[in-house]
Amino acid sequence: MTNPIKKLIIRDLIRDQIKRIAIEARREAEEKLGTDLSARCYEANSILADKLRENGFRARLYDGFFRYKGQLRRHFYVIADGRIVDIAADQYGQDKIVVADLDDPRYE
Questions:
Q1: Does residue 108 lie within any of the structural domains?
Q2: Total structural domains in the chain?
């Protein structure tokens, strides 16, 4: 049986690694697309998905929705390692980089 504390430590280490990759992907996206990624979520998060895959993660670009001001807006984000990862959420007043659980109510 795996030690539950060890599981939590591993989970946090993986989350930190994903966040570091997302920071790098955001930098690259801004260099290629500019600092305003509004309506560029497909291109930006495609860069993120590629970088995550290059680093050994199973990552999939997801065509979904973001809940913003009570409305669902079409939005592309990445699902990797059982998490939502998004480097273009700032167009909706969020942080530039979001790493969230799959049940995050902002995402569908």
A1: no
A2: 1
Q: Which domain holds residue 24?
A: 4-101
Q: How far apart are CA 96 and CA 44, in angstroms?
A: 11
What amino acid occupies position 81? D
Q: Which of 11, 77, 9, 27 is nearest to 106 (CA)?
A: 77
24's tokens: 């790098």
Residue 107 in domain: no
At 40-80, the pLDDT tens digits run 999 999 999 999 999 999 999 999 999 999 999 999 999 99
What's the pTM? 0.92
